[in-house]
Amino acid sequence: MFSRRHTTQVEERYRRRFIGDVEYHTSRSGYGDASLMAYRFDCQVPEKTGPDFVLVHGIGVSARMYGPTAVELAQRGDVHLIDMAGYGRSPRPDRDLTIADHAELIARYLEEHDLDHPVVVGHSMGAQVVAELAAGFPEQVDHIALIAPVVAPSARSLTKAVPLLLANGLKEPGVVTFLAVYDYLFRTGVRYMIRQTPHLLKAHLDEIAARVEAKTLVICGLDDRIVPLEWGRELAGRFRHGWYATVPGPHATMFAAPATIAALIDEHAHR
Q: I need a surface site. Which of 46, 105, 167, 211 has the fewest CB within 10 A?
């Protein structure tokens, strides 16, 4: 039995919203027992220089984490921000979703919206989802970018990961901390995060990489306390077609270096 909260809602049902002076359009895509909220930015220049971009957030938070980077990427192509099922404004799914389940839902979104080989970007746990998407649906995705990919082998338990998360929080700008805490407590909710965390810890990107044919860019923040730089470099080498780059900032580098990240992703799109 499908829930009414997972019905599709077109963009016309939602009011227009802006980040700065850049407008975006909201919709909901329903897939029976789960649904995704999406936020679409039209390309802001007359002549698009890049493909479409699809951005996937990490555990506990939402598409809002990509705001500044989405605005930068919209200078090159259309941008789709996704609230994964149960996160942000997306309704809670009717079943527990693994990393592979989240990837399948995004694949369905790409097909439904006729997105032809977009560059799909994942941050933190979103990097796991995007890599799984590329592994499972190679006919849809041939370029991916993984920002601050988790979890390094040295931190694959709660007792190791939580102290790193807290240490990194001290490095993040106040707006990132506010958005993250608000999402943790009032949008995603602690109970759903607890259900999702085992899936994050069990998804080993270094193993998923062996199944990925897509051209893959790994981006790490120079001040990231969660993702060691050496792990990012090693992970990039695990992909058949892997590149590695660093940018200023801690784990949520999308706020610290949006222009640099957008330029790197755009360069990657043309490889």
A: 46
